[in-house]
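Fig. S4 source data, part A: sequence.
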Amino acid sequence: MTSSRPLPHPIVVIAPDSFKGSLSAEQVASAIGNGVRAAIPQAEIRLKPIADGGEGTLDALLHAGGQRLSVRCRNAAGAPVEAPVGLLDNGSAVIESASIVGLTDAAGTAVALDQRSTLGIGDALLAVLERDVSQVLVALGGSSTNDGGAGLLVALGARLLDADGNDVPPRPADLGRVRRIDASAVDPRVATMRIVAMSDVDNPLCGEHGATAVFGPQKGVLPEQVAILDAALGHFADVLEGALQRHAKELPGAGAAGGLGYALLMLGAQFQSGAQTVADHIGLDEALAGAHWMITGEGRSDAQTLHGKAPFVASQRARRAGVATTLLSGGIDRKSLDRLQESFSGCFSIAFGPTTLEAAIADAPQLLQASAEQIARLWQAR
């Protein structure tokens, strides 16, 4: 029999961009909340969608208040598209790289990686600069590009020139031909705008821990291309740093989003943890005040979860507030359980038995709700 005793404190559901391509963080939070409410009808549930700087960051920030706009820009292949940006109630603008040059964009990734660029990020930045904004937040996760931010700079007005003074396309395949960079025509508003790069990545631009070697393979870089593309990025950086008399290629975060983080650093951007920035904006600490229990999760949890991912950030804040946290994810890496359970009071998968990834994604709302209900019944009966 399930106990019907009332809970003295609220339950907080913190849902990151858990099921990319299937459910938004808000939908994930709602499904979990519905499951908890089915088990504990009297529970006060506080839903707080969160993200860590990748896909879903724009949605999570706008959930706390703001306006979604559509801007004309270019995708990773250089084709014109309409992409969303956000204007938050606090005066900030939000650009999500995954929405413009994202890895899941079939049209943008139809060309080889060495032909993709971040021109669209520059287009979006110029569009939001037309608004009365106090700062621009750029979410870097989920990009399909590896151009060192060359496209961003060209869209803002910079020129990449070869030995004969001809313009060089801002694509990885061509960066090795750059001999001079003219930044004199870069939009002057960029220098006066506060730009925040949001990411949980601390990799440098080049080398064995750099953008190409670490993140290139998931974007389509072949093993034999790694050294070539890495050398092209390094060459581009040397020319850019000579032109701007600044140095950033070794800084943490320069390798984020295929080097887009590097270009933003060269423009004076500040790096911040994506999950921490979103948690602050959505008022996570306030939601945890007086709470009884928190549920969070993601598509798949493993040891990488503990390196600044949204569920880990949420759990650390909950621990400081004295709130226990349960992890409910699409999948749990069994080998990482020992480490995960140091931060979470129970780690659960939504899968009730053998299934395919496609089926799990298709049934995600029902699986989330059913799993949350069973966990809540266990919690209530303790």
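Fig. S4 source data, part B ends here. Residues 1-8 have pLDDT under 50 and may be disordered.
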